Recover the amino acids of this structure.
């Protein structure tokens, strides 16, 4: 009767008493649609969310996110005093955290004027750039000298624990503050020269072959020495073909080569999606077998054994248990592996690959791995 008469709040209460939570939530939703103003809709949405939460209903996450968006929209459209505005955003942030949307939670905490809490959330979810910005915002209330001192402390701590990327971010932040001391600038320059950024990596493995680790959003194949994959075969152009990673997938682009490019025998003169597995024909004589995984693509050259080209953000191999590598901020790291040593020292934490480092693995069989770096090509054409 209450439902037919449009008394949705009474109907929701009755459905709850009868244990019909789905029907109660439906009544609340219809009540939201009839509310005359935004804040009334928010109050009813809160009641629906709390009801779902109390009964562990499967709509809880969706209702929480709907309520969070309604709160954010309210802040964007209403003229509120600062305190109420902040509290509304904090409520929305907590709803996003409960729904597992931590990055969105951090964004709302920053907007609500809680940069330190936001930075902790960003750190938890691995959003490094947002974390650094939030920490910096938190420190802006202090003087420049205090900010610089805090960043230098982070730099020293990061170096102490072997976090070279964290150290790089900290020393860059300290140097970017106004009027950096000459000693700090020199420290920055010295440290940056020690960081092997913008390099591809080749691991030459005793008794096995070569693994070429390649990173970035694009990869070139051709005769040129500075191509990512250099193929010295007849019919291969200097800049023959390019592979590009986008949000929509991986694509192949022929770069105007004389003898063309094909995928599994089908010519591709225009940008063509790369399948999960197949063969890339580079000119008439070279064929690269490829296999795409979630975070990397593996290339092998037909007729050439024990040479791998790995393009992506993370790679591991069941054939070579000593090799498990990943990319972070443009640098390749080896993950710690039992029995793996770098220049005689046990690799018990992620190892930043350096030019000339000698790795040894106890096996069986025992292997020696020489790491060499080369500058990445910077000519996309």
């Amino acid at each position: 009767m209450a439902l037919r008469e449009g008394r949705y709040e009474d109907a929701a209460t009755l459905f709850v008493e009868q244990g019909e939570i789905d029907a109660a939530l439906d009544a609340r939703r219809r009540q939201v649609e009839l509310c005359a103003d935004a804040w009334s809709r928010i109050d009813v949405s809160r009641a629906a969310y709390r009801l779902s939460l109390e009964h562990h209903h499967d709509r809880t996450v969706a209702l929480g996110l709907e309520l969070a968006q309604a709160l954010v929209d309210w802040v964007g459209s209403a003229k509120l005093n600062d305190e109420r505005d902040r509290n509304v955003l904090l409520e929305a942030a907590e709803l996003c955290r409960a729904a597992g949307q931590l990055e969105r939670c951090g964004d709302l905490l920053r907007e609500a004027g809680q940069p330190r809490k936001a930075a902790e959330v960003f750190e938890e979810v691995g959003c490094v750039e947002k974390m650094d910005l939030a920490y910096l915002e938190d420190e802006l209330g202090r003087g420049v000298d205090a900010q610089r001192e805090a960043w230098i402390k982070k730099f020293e701590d990061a170096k102490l624990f072997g976090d070279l990327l964290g150290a790089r971010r900290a020393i860059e932040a300290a140097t970017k503050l106004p009027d950096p001391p000459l000693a700090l600038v020199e420290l920055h320059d010295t440290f940056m020269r020690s960081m092997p950024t913008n390099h591809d990596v080749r691991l030459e493995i005793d008794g096995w072959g070569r693994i070429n680790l390649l990173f970035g959003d694009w990869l070139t194949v051709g005769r040129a020495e500075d191509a990512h994959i250099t193929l010295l075969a007849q019919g291969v152009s200097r800049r023959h073909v390019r592979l590009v990673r986008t949000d929509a997938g991986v694509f192949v682009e022929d770069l105007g080569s004389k003898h063309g490019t094909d995928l599994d025998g089908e010519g591709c003169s225009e940008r063509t999606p790369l399948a999960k597995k197949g063969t890339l024909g580079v000119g008439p004589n070279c064929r690269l077998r490829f296999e795409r995984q979630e975070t990397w693509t593996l290339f092998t050259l037909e007729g050439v054994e024990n040479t791998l080209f790995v393009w992506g953000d993370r790679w591991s191999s069941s054939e070579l248990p000593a090799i498990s590598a990943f990319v972070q901020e443009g640098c390749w790291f080896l993950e710690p592996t039992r029995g793996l040593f770098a220049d005689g020292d046990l690799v018990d934490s992620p190892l930043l690959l350096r030019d000339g480092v000698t790795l040894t693995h106890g096996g069986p069989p025992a292997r020696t791995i020489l790491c060499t770096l080369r500058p990445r090509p910077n000519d996309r054409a």
